[in-house]
């Protein structure tokens, strides 16, 4: 299984529009962060978790030629806004795009992309097949098992996902003991850490590190990073030896 970080930024991305701070002005490519998303290559197929406003750019940058499915964590716009661009894969691969999401995401998709679900097959619109998931194990189209992990994004339920020894969690503020237990034993964990200050709906650095220390992955990477956190190099110096700031384009593999 190969993981590629397509985007490691928060909902505004980095740089932020009209911001002249030193992070947004950084010349280090690691400080340019698109909206949070990952590419998973497993079982001979490609899967993406979340398709936000930067989805098209992310697919082009990562040179993705085939995509089997999009798996959604939740319904916020920075995680669903790019879905229309899956139609390029519909055309190239002559098949529906499989979508895995909960009922709240289904409602949002049918609202935001109403023309896809109207029943009128207008030429060129995306072709989707919705698979509704609950907080229980499900299987991707190639049979790979996925375990949802329900976290709370303030008052909104959000899914993280575990595939084998890899766990991905974004937009988490609180995670119950029962859901934390699903993460234990992961070799690699990616988890959100917005910045150092407290936030109403996201882990800050202290909370993310507490969570990492509790579930004890071999390695952890921080994502959904705000320009208020600092530069990549600054963040790296704040972290324990087994924790790293994620950055766009980072790849790693697990057996």
Explained architecture:
The protein is globular. The longest helix is centred in the C-terminal third of the chain and has 11 residues. The chain is built from 7 helices and 14 strands. The strands form 2 sheets. A 7-stranded mixed sheet has the order 6-5-4-3-2-1-14. A 7-stranded mixed sheet has the order 7-8-9-10-11-12-13. The chain has 255 residues and is of the alpha/beta class. The chain has a single domain, classed as Metallo-beta-lactamase, Chain A. It is 20% helix and 27% strand. The model has no long low-confidence stretch (mean pLDDT 97).
Entry keywords:
7-stranded mixed beta sheet; alpha/beta; 7 helices; 255 residues; globular; Metallo-beta-lactamase, Chain A; single chain
Summary, kept brief:
This protein is of the alpha/beta class.
List the helices and strands and how they pair.
Elements: E1 2-7, E2 37-42, E3 45-49, H1 55-61, E4 69-71, H2 77-80, H3 87-93, E5 97-101, H4 103-112, E6 128-132, E7 138-139, E8 145-153, E9 156-163, E10 166-169, H5 177-183, E11 188-192, H6 205-215, E12 219-223, H7 232-237, E13 243-245, E14 251-253
Parallel strand pairs: 3-4, 4-5, 5-6, 10-11, 11-12, 12-13
Antiparallel strand pairs: 1-2, 1-14, 2-3, 7-8, 8-9, 9-10
